[in-house]
Amino acid sequence: MPTQLDNALEAIMGELTKEGQPFETAMMDRDGVPMPAFIGAPPSLAHFFAHFCKENEDVPFIVDGELRLTFGETYAAAVCVAEGLVKKHNIARGDRVGIAARNSANWMIAYMGITMAGGCATLLNGFWNGDELAYGIRLAQCKLVLVDAQRASRLEETDHGANLVMIEHDAPAKGLAGVWKAPESFETSVAMAMLGTLGAEDLATILYTSGSTGQSKGAFSDHLGVVSGVMNYVAQSAMAKVLLEGQGEDVSAQPCALVAVPLFHVTGEIPLFLQSFAIARKLVLMPKWDATEALRLIQDEQVTYFVGVPLMSYEMASHPERDQYDLSTCKSFAAGGAPRPVEHVNKIKEAFPGGFPLLGYGLTETNAVGCGNFNENYLAKPGSTGRASLPLVELAILDDDGNPVAQGGVGEVCMRTVCNFRGYWNNEEATAAAFTKDRFFRSGDLGYVDEDGYLYIVDRKKDIIIRGGENITCIEVEDAIYAHDDISECSVFGLPDERMGEVPAAVFRMKPGRKALSAGELRAFLLTKIAPFKVPLEEHIWITEDVLPRLGTQKIDKKSLRAAYTELMAAA
């Protein structure tokens, strides 16, 4: 039976979504299927930014090293970027504008400016190498890419076809000089004009997702999907705030979050960055993950909320200097992007007794919404990703034909919401395969729902490794290995890892008569082909003289290899 907390949360959400309330919902037609949607949600990100930045104009927003900006100052900078994109670079409504840069205030301002100009914010993976970045740019047909020095150097001598404009990580006007133009007045600015023309069905974003076919796909969303995804998180935050107030908690302090995940990932984009506008939350950036620095920033900036891949909160919980910092303001330690090992849940609660671990489950294609497991319920069911997120998410466990499985049975985890993406850019076949006829998105994850409505993920249909929140497709790494002329066959699979969740591993066999490669030599070869995070460490690369095991379909039996080498590593 649902817990007392579940019942309380449902009752609160029921009040928040009633007629005339802030999160009132009504059924709308989306691709011929009725789905709940927020009546009062802004029609586009441009409207979203304009409304909440005005409402929170003088409230502190971004802390990026020595740079501090209010919501009003951030919006004013984005107005100038939107003006420059249209007036200096001729960006038109729907044009794809890429961002290839590390996290910074200027990354955020660039994102805002692109969408406020009517462009499509195309979030390129900052961990990619030059060829991968070039592929992403070509795939989305980016007209312009805002790029920092590190990513620009990777793109040298690649065929990307876009106009590159430098983005620097310092003061906004200087760091975005290439796309900066102050309008004569706000009333006649591009940003103001777009408020009259940009609508819910206009193209808003493209994010990249690793699929089982190897090369990344560009998942595109309209403004309705992105804004709805954000507002579903805002509704959840409002629900939690009402609950805490009812329990006598003081929730008057400004919320503050530490930004330790990439903004080009959907977890960084939607629940962290975009949600902050609506809940007036301060964001504190750290350019590179460091557990000690994270503890210092939580203390000095009065951080109330932390989200990262599971290893981050675990590293803080197990940090030898943790007790030297006052971390009492931080009440939530959330994880997303990868499963959190069960043993980490209790460790985090023990390390931060005044807070709670949280877990979210969502995908790029769902604009981060899905399920959530909170507080006492997470401690009671640490192996679950939680219940469907109210009020928009409809969760289903379906078989291969799209039919519901029996309650408690294992099937593919599928979700239907107005938040879901619209498709994969220039890939109609993959788009069609991603949805059932009733418009449920097929996640590729296998799971079941228990009698209390809690989702448990048990496996993946897709051949993907999740390393510290980064998706690695096995076939992409295998393709890179096969590019070596001396290799006959190989298999890439994930191995469990306490810190990263999973890490890539490979076993390979040489062609007859060829000189054997060492693990180090193969790793060095792979580093010239794919991003470093995709390349197995030397100790996770094995050579064999035997033909790799096959299934009845003659495909390599990856499952048995993973089991055998997991056992080998455990015995080492």
Strands in their spatial order, largest beta sheet: 4-3-12-11-13-14-15-16-17
Q: Tell me the number of helical segments per DSSP (H or I, 4 or more residues long).
A: 18
Mean of residue pLDDT values: 92
| C-alpha termini separation | 44 Å
Features:
7-stranded mixed sheet, 24% strand
What would you say this structure looks like, in words?
The structure is a single chain. This protein has 572 residues and is of the alpha/beta class. Helix content is 34%, strand content 24%. It contains 18 helices and 27 strands. The strands form six sheets. It has a nine-stranded mixed sheet with strand order 4-3-12-11-13-14-15-16-17, with helices on both faces. β7, α6 and β8 form a beta-alpha-beta unit. α3 packs across α4. The longest helix is centred in the middle third of the chain and has 24 residues. The protein starts with a helix and ends with a helix. The model has no long low-confidence stretch (mean pLDDT 92).
